[in-house]
Design brief:
about 120 residues; about 30% strand; single chain; Beta-lactamase Inhibitory Protein, Chain:B, domain 1; five-stranded antiparallel sheet; 3 helices
Length: about 120
C-alpha cells in the first residue's frame, strides 16, 4: 500500500512538471538588441583610404575587434524578437597600412566607395 502511495505521488509530481513546462511560451520576452546597429546610409559614407579614426567617426567603435588580426573590424548586430524572430547583420571592414581597403557583409558597398575622400 505504501509503494502505491509513493508511486501516485511521483506520478502527480511528474504530470505537474510536464504540464507546467509547456507554459514557458506564455512568458513575455523582452526584445533585446545587441551589437552595432548600422543603417545602409551609415555604410554609404565609407570611402577607400579612410583612416581608422574616420571610420570610428562614421560608424562608431566595433563591438568585436579581432585580437589576432588588428586589421579586421567586425560590426555585428543581432535583434531577438521573441523566440523565433531573429535578425542578424554584420559588416566586416579591412585595413592595410592604417587605411580602409575593403568592406563586406550584409550591407551593399557604396557606389563611390572606391573614390577616396579629398585629402
Amino acid at each position: 500500500m505504501q509503494s502505491l502511495k509513493t508511486f501516485s505521488l511521483w506520478l502527480i509530481v511528474a504530470l505537474t512538471l510536464s504540464t507546467t513546462a509547456g507554459c514557458s511560451s506564455w512568458v513575455y520576452r523582452i526584445n533585446i538588441p545587441q551589437g552595432n546597429f548600422l543603417e545602409q546610409s551609415d555604410v554609404e559614407k565609407l570611402r577607400v583610404n579612410m583612416t581608422r579614426e574616420q571610420v570610428i567617426y562614421v560608424l562608431g567603435r566595433p563591438i568585436a575587434e579581432d585580437a589576432f588580426d588588428n586589421n579586421t573590424w567586425r560590426y555585428v548586430y543581432s535583434f531577438n524578437k521573441g523566440r523565433k524572430n531573429e535578425q542578424h547583420k554584420s559588416l566586416v571592414i579591412k585595413f592595410e597600412n592604417e587605411k580602409l581597403v575593403s568592406i563586406s557583409g550584409d550591407y551593399d558597398q557604396p557606389e563611390n566607395f572606391n573614390t577616396p575622400l579629398e585629402q
